[in-house]
């Protein structure tokens, strides 16, 4: 484990309350999406990197199911029964309620602009239909207030049908007599897509009667919607009370294997990179990772709070005054645990928060009044890269600077490229959702990362060590020793 905390100087990010659209971090990286036709198939963000990786993951789990019907488990503490544990005799002719996350972006003409989440759902659905199941597919789209036509799932049908290689039938509701008739007419190996489950407010309220109506359509349940697994909704948690077995889909299981398994039992040295604008949004993640990692690299606007807590001048950089004491305690905790906590030694500062701002590189301890840090500097990039060189596991959550502005994206892009290099050398690289996903996609290195999480809020909560209601509700797997 690395020795005492190495604290030297602050890093970057956005000023308070800027009205620029870039001040909204790319938790949903819409600025990277382009409206276009789906020829050729779109390859963007999150799961675009994981197509081949998920295929290998699914194949391995399917093979391992073999005669026992049980897949491998690397996470005893959160080991859940997986769809890969179910054999043909468990599935043929059975009606399976599948909760997927098909919350894809649509343009003004209802064209899909990023089909990542649809593609992410395909492996579990294909496994089910190939084993003769009748799939009843459920999802939400947007944040509708009651029945809202623009949030209908109808625009998803052509792309979903194309990816599955069969014609998907679409229902006009998600419960009721007409839906029941469509379910009754399903043939083995077919798929029925229900209408937006959030058209009913009972969904987010996890209303038991609504959950019972959804569950009455099926014989068993598969949750493959990691992005909503941190919510106790009727279709993610409520239905499990009425459907058995209730199991994880391949995507959900892969998220657990990496975000819990690889982090709980990492190959060492284990480094964590945490960025973003505010300490307050990453407190839980930092505290949790300090219990597990050997090296912790901090970037983003949060750094100025750490440095002001140490008496340094930060100019007009973003500072959370009410988190100064917390920052001090986190630094002390890192030192006590022998975690090497690295802060940038130099920063790129700007005279305003804008893509065309005047900028220069200064030591982190020498930020002049009226200037703000918007990226980590070249010395910090080298220091961080050197620290990562011998790592065997790295998890990254949050950018190093205002990477939406090309002028201040150098640090974030350098980290992305470094992780791509490490991946090629066998290091396990985990991109923990949100802005980090957008960054590796922007740089074009997403395909080589070990795992790219599809869930922003769910990823954060899992890394914080919180329990996810949609996961906890699933059936436990029989623990299997890890070789």
TrEMBL record:
Segments traversing the membrane: none
EC main group: transferase
One cellular component term from this protein's GO annotations in UniProt: cytosol
Pfam families given in the database record: PGK
Bias (Low complexity) ranges: 8-36
Annotated GO biological process: gluconeogenesis; glycolytic process
Region (Disordered): 1-36
Recorded GO MF terms: ADP binding; ATP binding; phosphoglycerate kinase activity
Cofactor: Mg(2+)
EC number(s) per entry: 2.7.2.3
Reaction catalyzed: (2R)-3-phosphoglycerate + ATP = (2R)-3-phospho-glyceroyl phosphate + ADP
Functional pathway: Carbohydrate biosynthesis; Calvin cycle
Keywords of this entry: ATP-binding, Kinase, Magnesium, Nucleotide-binding, Transferase
Family under the similarity heading: Belongs to the phosphoglycerate kinase family.
Quaternary structure and interacting proteins, as annotated: Monomer.
Full protein name: Phosphoglycerate kinase
Originating organism: Acorus calamus (Sweet flag)
């Amino acid at each position: 484990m690395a020795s005492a905390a190495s604290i030297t100087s602050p890093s970057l990010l956005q000023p308070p309350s800027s009205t620029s659209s870039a001040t909204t971090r790319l938790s949903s990286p819409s600025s990277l999406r382009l409206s276009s036709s789906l020829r050729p198939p779109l390859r963007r963000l999150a799961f675009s990197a994981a197509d081949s990786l998920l295929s290998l993951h699914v194949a391995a789990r399917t093979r391992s199911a073999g005669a026992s019907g049980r897949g491998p488990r690397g996470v005893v503490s959160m080991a859940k029964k997986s769809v890969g544990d179910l054999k043909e005799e468990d599935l043929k002719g059975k009606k399976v309620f599948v909760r997927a996350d098909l919350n894809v972006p649509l343009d003004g003409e209802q064209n899909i602009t990023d089909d990542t989440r649809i593609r992410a759902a395909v492996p579990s659905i294909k496994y089910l239909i190939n084993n003769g199941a009748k799939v009843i597919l459920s999802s939400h789209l947007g944040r509708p207030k009651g029945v809202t036509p623009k949030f209908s799932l109808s625009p998803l049908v052509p792309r979903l049908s194309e990816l599955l290689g069969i014609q998907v039938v679409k229902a006009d509701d998600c419960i009721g007599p007409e839906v029941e008739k469509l379910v009754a007419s399903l043939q083995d190996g077919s798929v029925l897509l229900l209408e937006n489950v959030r058209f009913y407010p009972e969904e987010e309220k996890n209303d038991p009667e609504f959950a019972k109506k959804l569950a009455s359509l099926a014989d068993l349940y598969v949750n493959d919607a990691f992005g909503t697994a941190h919510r106790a909704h009727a279709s993610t948690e409520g239905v499990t009370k009425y459907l058995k077995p209730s199991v994880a889909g391949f995507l959900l299981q892969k998220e657990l294997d990496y975000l819990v398994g690889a982090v709980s039992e990492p190959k060492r040295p284990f480094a964590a990179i945490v960025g973003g604008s505010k300490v307050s949004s990453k407190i839980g993640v930092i505290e949790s990772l300090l219990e597990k990692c050997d090296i912790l690299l901090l970037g983003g606007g949060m750094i100025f709070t750490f440095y002001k807590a140490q008496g340094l001048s930060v100019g007009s950089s973003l500072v959370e005054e009410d988190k100064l004491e917390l920052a001090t305690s986190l630094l002390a905790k890192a030192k006590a645990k022998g975690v090497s906590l690295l802060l940038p030694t130099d920063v790129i500062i700007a005279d305003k928060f804008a893509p065309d701002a005047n900028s220069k590189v200064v030591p982190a301890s020498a930020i002049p009044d009226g200037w703000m840090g918007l990226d980590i500097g070249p010395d910090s990039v080298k220091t961080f890269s050197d620290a990562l060189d011998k790592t065997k596991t790295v998890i990254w959550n949050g950018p190093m600077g205002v990477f939406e502005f090309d002028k201040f994206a150098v640090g974030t892009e350098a980290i992305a490229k470094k992780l791509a290099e490490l991946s090629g050398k066998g290091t396990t690289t985990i991109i923990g959702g949100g802005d980090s996903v957008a960054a590796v996609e922007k740089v074009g290195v997403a395909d080589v990362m070990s795992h790219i999480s599809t869930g922003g809020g769910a990823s954060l909560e899992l890394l914080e060590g919180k329990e996810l209601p949609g996961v906890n509700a699933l059936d436990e797997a029989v623990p299997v020793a890890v070789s």
